[in-house]
TrEMBL record:
Function noted in UniProt: May play the central regulatory role in sporulation. It may be an element of the effector pathway responsible for the activation of sporulation genes in response to nutritional stress. Spo0A may act in concert with spo0H (a sigma factor) to control the expression of some genes that are critical to the sporulation process.
Xref: InterPro entries: CheY-like_superfamily, OmpR/PhoB-type_DNA-bd, Sig_transdc_resp-reg_C-effctor, Sig_transdc_resp-reg_receiver, WalR-like, WH-like_DNA-bd_sf
Protein name: Stage 0 sporulation protein A homolog
KW Transcription (keyword) present: yes
One CC-aspect GO term: protein-DNA complex
Taxonomic classification: Bacteria, Bacillati, Bacillota, Clostridia, Eubacteriales
Positions of modified residues (4-aspartylphosphate): D76
Amino acid sequence: MYYHLNCTLVNELKLNGVLIMHNHKKRILVVDDEMKIVEVVKSYLERDGYFVYSAYDGKTVISLFDKIAPDLMILDLMLPDVRGEELCEILRAKSKVPIIMLTAKTSEDDILRGLDIGADDYVTKPFSPRQLVARVKALLRRTKDEGSRFEDLIYIDEGDLIIDNLSYEVKKSGETINLTPIEYKILSVMVNHPEKIFTREELISIVLEKNFDGYNRTIDSHIKNLRQKIETDSKKPAYILTVRGIGYKFGVIKD
């Protein structure tokens, strides 16, 4: 189990391993068992001003994650000890950190599986480091201050669903639920435009931005995950409704 820290960060760590930040540079955790790939990605990210941590196996990530509190993670799926998919699920259960999966798995099923378990973006090998950095920038940009232009507190269905745009928390029946940044953005956009029908292309443009290069059905995976978290019965959704042949809209359905 081992990892690499950018040497410029050493004086920012307490002896107990808790990170104290003295600046606003974003922290990126790059996870891949191929050292050459890590070094290339690290070099390009540092060139753009990011702090970069590196890990080469899943156990290191699990032990390191809470200490460094990364702003974004680039995660290879084929690690030597823990499958990337399993690691993604473990982290997603406790964190909303944006995750970009980096992998040689290129089938549509693999991509949709990655999105189903909580990834925010999916980059296949071989890849362009410059494009990867662009995706990092785009993902950080769209997750920054999400909901800030919306109402601070939104009560839906007499408080059954509450969206707090100050703390970025969502509560269902009084319990806080853990949404990914993309899921939160979808919900915020749709709630603030009730009854508007969004096509898949519109949601991709708004939530995933124009540089998205993938399948239109990607948005369906995010909708599916969101429904499982905020609907009482995800098979009979009352909030995020399907408009056949067009897309989705937000509306409260009463029994």
